[in-house]
Amino acid sequence: MNFLAHIYLSGDDPELTIGNFIADTVKGKHFEQFPLQIQQGIRLHRKIDFYTDTHPTVQTSIRRLFPKYRHYSGVIVDIIYDHFLAANWNLYSPIPLDTYVADFYALLETHYKILPKPIQKFLPYMIQDNWLLSYATIPGISTILHQMNLRTKKRSNMNFAVIELEKYYTEFENDFHSFFEELILFSKNEIRAF
Prior knowledge:
The chain has helices spanning 3-8, 14-22, 36-53, 56-69, 73-87, 97-110, 117-128, 131-134, 138-151, 162-167, 169-193. The chain is mainly α. The protein has one domain (3-193). α2 packs across α3. The protein is globular and about 45 Å long.
């Protein structure tokens, strides 16, 4: 899953949410320097990633992309799934997406000093270009995929994956809804176990 899903799956705990959001920039056991709830958010992120990467429905989505995008297919599916979460936000939250996203950005700004340097570096761009809200549209996802392609020095060709998204839109959307219901339950159970 990508940023929006990880944030959403954290529930209402601000520090758990921050930990889940920053987890990709915290390697190994370096998370032990953070407060307990942030550590738990990092652990939750890792469990969500493992669950997602090994789930049969996600593997079905990845297989649609694999012939063209190879090992980048999983990253693309994460982004595509965030699109379906944003585009269908009202099915998952009573809070409007623009309000939810603005509140999250404010949370990050409040806790700016504790954020890892890579997050501090890209946060102004994330807020300025409103990445999370942009996930809701095809042009927004296209922009995100283009940026990701640049990060791979144009080796991934992710910028073209919007073609497959549009071609298999219904299939990807069905995969997402089927999988996400299970992931929500999984995440709630993991949070309760902390």
